[in-house]
Amino acid sequence: MEFPNLVIILVEPEQPGNVGFVTRVLANFGVQELRIVGWDPREDMIAQIYSVRAHEILDAAGIYDDLPSALEDIEAAWATSARAGRNHSVTRALVPLENLPNPKSLEGKVALVFGRESSGLTNEELGLCEFAFTISTSEGYPSLNLSHAVAIVLHHLYTNYAPEEPSEIVLPRAATRTERDQVMVFLDEVIDALVLKEYRKPIAKQVFRNLLGRSYMTGREVTTMTGVARKLYDLVKESEKDDD
Fold first, then answer.
1. Which contacts of 190-194 are long-range, i.e. CB under 8 A and separated by 24 or more positions?
2. Which residue in 37, 43, 105, 219 is deepest, having the highest Cβ count within 10 Å?
3. CA 197, 203, 205, 211 torsion: positive or negative?
4. Beta bridge partners of 86
5. How many whole angstroms separate alpha carbon 127 and alpha carbon 140?
6. How far apart are CA 54 and CA 50, in angstroms?
């Protein structure tokens, strides 16, 4: 579990399908605790269907009457807001998503609070949180679907803070010139044994050399190709013996 102290709070979500999708997003990014303010969607068929294999998170979700009760044991609460209006209670600590701190660096539980699909969070609800943050979107259509917003925020946190030790990407070893030349040893023999006009044989050999030279090939790929070329060579030699 990448974020053991992170809690997602949905305030009065309006669409059960969104709740189901949110549970899948939590599972995608290593978050296990979901809290829902308002109605209880856990038994809703649509929410269950859309949660798919993340239904355990949905089933274990906490249901609260209001946001203050959902925040009682929370050390820090960060609210989402698409509004950067003039109201000081909204803008006093409005930060971009990119500036969110690492939730694992804080003691206790950290909550990400998401508002209603239609109207977001009220100023009073925003005032219960340490600060509000925004997700950069087009000015022409700044509103995000609830599950999409959760996915974007958790992807950002996961990318920047989740791995204790970033996994090392092991690139495949490129084939050496010697390995590529070994392929041609057998291909040359095969071409020599084919019924071709003599002047075409060096052309055919050069075409294969050009292809090998232009292609990025790994050592494993060239080894496989060498094995195939050798089998073709053996077949040609067997055919010559049968003809004799």
1. 190/229, 190/232, 190/233, 190/236, 193/233, 193/236, 193/237, 193/240, 194/236
2. 37
3. negative
4. none
5. 27
6. 9
Q: pLDDT tens across 73-83, in order?
A: 999 999 998 75
Residue 8 CA to residue 23 CA, distance in Å, equals: 10
Q: Exposure of 193 by Cβ count < 10 A (0-12 exposed, 13-18 middle, 19+ buried)?
A: middle
| Cβ neighbours of residue 74 closer than 8 Å, sequence gap 6 or more | 7, 108, 109, 110, 111
> Helix, strand, coil: what percent of the chain each, to 5?
50, 15, 35
Cα dihedral 109, 72, 88, 101, rounded to 10, equals 0
pTM, two decimal places: 0.66
CATH 3.90.1150.10 fits 6-161, yes or no: no
**Do 133 and 97 form a contact (C-beta atoms < 8 A)?**
yes
Cβ 110 vs Cβ 6: under 8 Å:
yes
Nearest residue to 6 via CA among 21, 26, 36: 26
CA-CA distances (angstroms) from residue 42 to 47, 56, 235? 7, 10, 66
**For residue range 24-74, what is the model confidence (pLDDT) as tens digits?**
999 999 999 999 999 999 999 999 999 988 999 999 999 999 999 999 999
